[in-house]
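Record minuted for everyone:
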Amino acid sequence: MLQVHSHALLKLVKGKKRGNRFILGIDGLSRSGKTTLTHSLCKHLKEEGIAHAVFHIDDYIVERKRRYNTGRDEWFEYYFLQWDLHDIRQNLLEKLLLSKEIALSFYDPGSDSHDVRSIQLPEECLIIVEGVFLQRQEWRSFFDYMVFLDCPQEERFLRESEETQRNREKFKSRYWKAEDFYLKAVSPRKKADLVFNV
């Protein structure tokens, strides 16, 4: 199904692209298929010789001490503290349209630390940003087109590893509450330009 969606999305974006760069957001809750759709879309782009760059929001999360045991509710930590919202806005999103080079702090989960890497961007390209909560107020205005992948919570949970599924309580208190907040406060299904039911 996502293969079909990626082909349709490629046609749509090609029809809408104007100017040198086009910023496409692929939004969706955890395990909804964002990365799979992105990979499939990139395969089509490569086949057609279309220059593109991909940014995964989860590459830029903050170190554990800034997002765990902060004294705030777990869902709050995940939604508001998992990423440095201002840093991503200032050092990634604000630079996507015009910058030839972007320096970003990539998170390494093994060492719980960051290393700065420079990303070169072609003057003309399709830029794909993939991640959860992309339509939050701090980020939404930077996207030319937004796709939201809609998938039932229980189906998404079953895509987790068996080990991860054993910790259902963490999902209830941390992830699902944050997702519920996003769905109610932001209404991503309504605000997206295109919704795929997956």
Notes: Residues 89 and 139 are 6 Å apart (CA to CA). The longest strand covers residues 21-28.
